[in-house]
Amino acid sequence: MTKRELIDAEVLIHGGGMVGLTLGVALAGAGVETVVLDKADPAGLLTAEHDGRVSAITHGSQQLLNAIGLWDPMAPHGEPILDIRVTDGNSPLFLHFDHRAIGDAAFGHIVENRHTRQALHAVAARTERLHLIAPCGLRELSRGAARVEAELDDGRRIRARLSVAADGRHSALRQAAGIPVTTWRYNQTGIVCTVAHERPHLGVAQERFLPAGPFAILPMTGNRSSLVWTERADLAPAIMALDEAGFAEEMGLRFGDYLGRLKVDGGRWSFPLGLSHATRYADTRLVLVGDAAHAIHPISGQGLNLGLRDVAALAEVLVDARRLGLDMGSRDILDRYERWRRFDTAMLLAVTDGLNRLFSNDIAPIKLVRDLGLAAVEQIPPLKRLFMRHAMGVIGDLPRLARGEPL
Ligand SMILES: Cc1cc2nc3c(=O)[nH]c(=O)nc-3n(C[C@H](O)[C@H](O)[C@H](O)COP(=O)(O)OP(=O)(O)OC[C@H]3O[C@@H](n4cnc5c(N)ncnc54)[C@H](O)[C@@H]3O)c2cc1C
């Protein structure tokens, strides 16, 4: 594509993160002429230094990724989650979920975000009808009754039926459209690092509720685990600034010695934690997906999975409309997507927010009630199985891709 060129597309996606680029691959794979625009340089996004996080890819998300050819390159980097163990501080009561209680499939897989991004970029590069333009900023976007027109920083112009905001939690497109968000900050920071350990984790994910917030130990390939350590926002900077020995000591106090000797493997990252939810997911020829629509607490490891369910639903609605010869960017099509996704998202937002508030404190009566709750759930197998199906992302009105079917 040369500069000053006019590119005619059907869908223009702003943001080539894990959600935006997955949507691009899904749509282009179904024959939709798609452009993905990202202001960041992909070369930087693909390095270990950019993002040390992992994502717990649920069984439902895995089905979607498999259906559009993304799971094969990711699979060698994925570690199955076979068991989940939930504990409350030093209470002897705990909850134990074993995947075998509901079938053969693992709850999901832990995959490093950089491997997911690498797989996405490799598949995107060989997908016909998908054009990734990055790094490049947007100079102007006009959304008219019949189409959208974008002018890029390098002078190129793009015309499309629909623009998609997949530009993350602080979405510039959402703000420009004047779509309000319900938002609040938790007084918490997520500290993330990889830990190499002496003994194998046996595919067990641990979620420990400590007074400052959840402390998750997630099984990675090899004798490695990813730590998502929620800490009080006022203490986190001091912890992040500790030298290697000091950080290892603080971490070890919370991690315990059940996996033998520990060593931090690579860098540390920290993320301010907050919740945001757009009051609408659609506007004139604009639709929101992923963190641009909703960002949640990482307590349940579901933020990306929620975004991937947006991808599956939006791709289905758009492709079905196109097959019927309808205008993919029309408001009734976008409203259909919004109705489909809003309930699932609102439920998960409420549950993650409630769990975080319930568990991130050391108030004795609350601790007693939640420990009794843990013990009760442990004793009720049908309730446990329901929780497990939720954790696998296989509940609700699932789009075709999330059921592993083609679009
Ligand atoms: C500590 C932590 C742990 C987490 N763990 C999990 C987990 O285990 N499982 C899970 O499912 N989720 C998890 N999440 C949530 C998950 O990481 C996010 O939900 C997910 O990354 C959102 O992806 P996205 O593509 O919507 O947004 P982003 O990843 O924010 O991507 C946005 C993209 O848009 C680009 N962009 C930004 N502005 C513009 C613009 N104006 N124009 C063009 N491009 C733009 C950016 O460069 C970027 O590439 C976690 C989150 C945190 C903070």
Ions, cofactors and other bound molecules = flavin-adenine dinucleotide
Any low-confidence stretches, pLDDT <50, length ≥5? none
Distance from first to last alpha carbon: 29 Å
Helix content: 25-40%
What value does the average pLDDT take? 92
The portion of residues forming beta strands comes to 25-35%
Morphology: globular
Number of β-strand runs = 21
What strand order characterises the main sheet? 7-6-15-16-17-14-18-21
Oligomer classification = single chain
What does this structure look like?
It is a single chain. This protein is of the alpha/beta class and 407 residues long. Helix content is 35%, strand content 30%. An eight-stranded mixed beta sheet has the order 7-6-15-16-17-14-18-21. α1 (18-29) runs parallel beside α5, α1 (18-29) runs parallel beside α9 (303-323) and α9 packs antiparallel against α10 (331-359). The two termini are 29 Å apart.
How is this structure best summarized?
The chain has helices at 18-29, 42-45, 59-67, 71-74, 113-125, 172-176, 236-240, 244-255, 303-323, 331-359, 364-379, 381-392, and strands at 6-8, 11-14, 34-37, 54-58, 79-81, 83-88, 94-98, 108-112, 130-133, 138-143, 148-152, 157-160, 162-165, 181-197, 204-210, 213-220, 224-232, 262-278, 282-283, 286-288, 294-295. With 407 residues, it is of the alpha/beta class.
